[in-house]
Amino acid sequence: MKCKITLSLICIFFLIIPSVYPKDATLKQIKQATAVLEAISGKDIAKYLKIKDVDLKGGSYIKNIKITHFDNPRISIKGDWKNNIVVEASNIGLGVTADWRVKKRVLFIKYQESGTLRASVSNVSFKVTLSTRTFSVAKCSESIGSFKVKLKGKLLAWIVKTFVNVDRLLKRKLKGQICKAISKEINKHSAKISRIIQG
C-alpha cells in the first residue's frame, strides 16, 4: 500500500512540476530573443529624448533643446536567461542643438547676447537588467560622458562660457533621459520576448 502511494506521489510530482516551472530556453530561442533586444538597444532613440528648457536668472535661458542624432552603440547582452539578463550599450554619441540667451550686468554695463549652440556628447552608455519573469526592465543605469559645446552669436559668444556653464547644465538636463527612453522601448517589446522564450 505504501509503495503504491509513494509511486502515485512521484508520478504527480513529475506531471505537475514541469507545468509550473517550464523547461530552460533553447539556444535557438535565446538567439531570437537576443536579436530582438539588440535591435531595440541599437535603435535611434533620439526622438524619445525630451530635454526641458533651462531657465536662468535675469532672463537668460537655453531653449528648444533637441537631440539631432544618436550613434549606433556597441551592444553586449549577458546572462543565462534563467537567473539574469543584462543589456549593456556603450560608445554612444549624441548631437544636440539649442537656442540660448544671456543677460548680465557687469559693473555698470548691461550685457545681452543670444544665438544658437551645437553640442556633441561622447562616451554615453547604459546598462539594463531585465526581469527573468516578465522580461521588462527591472533596473537601469546610465553614464553620460563629456560635452563639447560650440556657441554661435551676434557678438562675443565665447564670453557666455564665463557667465554660464553650458556643458554642466545640458548634462544635468540629459541625466535620466537615456534610461527612460530605452526602458520604454524594451518594455514595449517585453511580451514579444516572453513569447519567444516560453515557446
- Identify the CATH class: Alpha Beta
Radius of gyration: 26 Å
Number of domains: 1
Oligomer: single chain
Major β-sheet profile: 7 strands, antiparallel
Q: N-to-C SSE series?
A: HHEEEEEEEHHHH
Percent of residues in helical segments? 25-40%
The CATH architecture can be named as Super Roll
Report the sheet-strand fraction.
35-45%
Distance between the termini: 40 Å
> Got a strand count?
7
SS class: alpha+beta
| Low-confidence runs of at least 5 consecutive residues | 2-22
Q: What's the short version?
A:
This protein is α+β, with helices and mostly antiparallel strands and 199 residues long. The chain has 6 helices and 7 strands. It has one domain (24-198): Bactericidal permeability-increasing protein, domain 1, CATH 3.15.10.10.
Structure report:
The protein has 199 residues and is α+β, with helices and mostly antiparallel strands. The protein has a single domain, classed as Bactericidal permeability-increasing protein, domain 1. It contains six helices and seven strands, in the order ααβββββββαααα. Strands 1, 2, 3, 4, 5, 6 and 7 form a seven-stranded antiparallel β-sheet that branches. The longest helix is centred in the N-terminal third of the chain and has 19 residues. The two termini are 40 Å apart.
